[in-house]
Amino acid sequence: MTRGRGLAAAIGAMAAIVLTVTVLPPARAAPAPLTRAEATAVLAVIPARYLAWYRAAARTCRGLTWEVLAGIGTEESGNGRSSARGVHKGKNRKGAEGPMQFEPPTFREYAARADRSARLTPYNPKDAIFSAARMLCADGAASGTAKGLRRAIFAYDHARWYVRAVLAIAARYTAAERALPHRVAHRGSAHRGRARRRGRR
User: CA 133, 139, 141, 146 torsion: positive or negative?
Assistant: First the structure.
């Protein structure tokens, strides 16, 4: 290589570096912490009994957080507050039942009788939440890794947008939890499996 060619090559390489740096997107700023009022409002969408069940059910599976369970419950039925068909009785148009929207075969596979005072059913929110925790645990959450958790959520509903939506809701709940003293967070809210999951409403 001659000196001229070497200089040209060096200049070209520098230009490529400059171009690469120039086109990189700016780093995203970290979201601002929630205020107490904002955090209280975020957690207020979860009925107190649902929050207690999410917390208890998450403790049955290492690697699963209550926020992810709540993210699914929020996405599926607004934490039991939805009046859509199939949430409190009957089935939706895809055959899903209860506040966690299980298809009957999936519920039979993962059913957990958490409420000993009543018959096991997907319409019982406590049973449904503990059953969802069992399913998520079996489908990857037990690994304790982000990849395993995403796999478990995807198994719950085979859609990438669904995984993103649940994780976004969970992140919001996590931020709210951090913004409030633990005791306030407790009071403030005072399937298919794998290829057989449930249908969308």
Answer: negative
Query: Encoding tokens for residue 53?
Result: 């069940």
CA atoms of 88 and 163, how far apart (whole Å): 24
- C-alpha triplet 157, 99, 144: angle, nearest 5°: 50
> Which residue has tokens 């003293």?
181
HEC string of the chain? CCHHHHHHHHHHHHHHHHHHHHHCCCCCCCCCCCCHHHHHHHHCCCCHHHHHHHHHHHCCCCCCCHHHHHHHHHHHHCCCCCCCCCCCCCCCCCCCECCCCECHHHHHHHCCCCCCCCCCCCCCHHHHHHHHHHHHHHCCHHHCCHHHHHHHHHHHCCCHHHHHHHHHHHHHHHHHHHHCCHHHHHHCCCCCCHHHCCCCC
pTM beyond 0.85, yes or no: no
Length of the chain, in residues = 201
pLDDT along the chain (201 residues), means of 10: 42 40 48 86 96 98 97 98 97 96 98 96 98 98 97 97 98 94 48 44 44
Query: How far is the C-alpha of 86 from the C-alpha of 99, rounded, in Å?
Result: 8
> For position 31, what pLDDT does the model report?
66
